[in-house]
Amino acid sequence: MQVPAPFEYARATSVAHAIALLDQHGPEARLLAGGHSLLPMMRLRLARPETLIDINGLTDLDYVRLDGDEIAIGAMTRHVTVLNSPVLREHYRIFADAEAVIADPLVRNRGTVGGSLCQADPAEDLSAVLSALRAQAVIQAASGSRTVALRNFHEGPYETVVGGAEMLVEVRVPVRPGTGSAYEKVHRRAGDWAVAAAGAFVQLRSGVVQDVGIGLAAVGADHFTCAEAEELLRGQEPTTEQIRSAAGMCRDSCNPQTDQRGPEDYKRHLAEVLVERALSRSIARATGEEN
To answer: Is the pLDDT assigned to residue 284 strictly greater than 90?
Structure first.
């Protein structure tokens, strides 16, 4: 039986308390939210935190709400809440698409938005979704908060810009009228990590692409996105040829690795196909052709 290395345990009663505990226990302390990524790594001793700071009591960070021209999502919001949120379903159906294929109901009932983003797994679905939507991450420290674009939030695999005595507390997504969005994923079995996945939103005005975002997971895309493909589509009529060209740019720009889920060339092919599907479905939803 695999067991973690010894560690101390503390339970935070507020965001300020959690940050104070992080500062007190130093760089070897880790926050415990849902624990579905951290605890298995601890059992395998791939992660050896000296202190676990349990933040499951911070229910004030569990929300999805419309705040002016943005949607605010608390870091402790569970995946199941995101899946069932009427606010997100109204504005961005990409969330329901992605959440429906994240793990299984047991994991979705406990796993959190903040935990998923801070794990920074290259195959993580919400990182691709929120990068596509150009969301902003709100990071809290004892001295105040700062806002970082999700596209700059991940510094590399399993690394983020969150400092040792800081905490991700919220994600903010701009509301864009006239938008359709979608998420596509290929995985070996239900609930598994992606072999490849792609998400997109398209905002149309008078039949022209006003704004667009593309997110990619599990294929080594720079910051989970392909800015060149977005620029190709922006300001254009979204023809089949334009969509295919953008998908081809995503294929060429990503950097997948051969592993147990498949070879590099197969993943590149999937990236192209899934981006084309996600863009096409986003356009269909923006125009009302797909209910």
So the answer is: yes
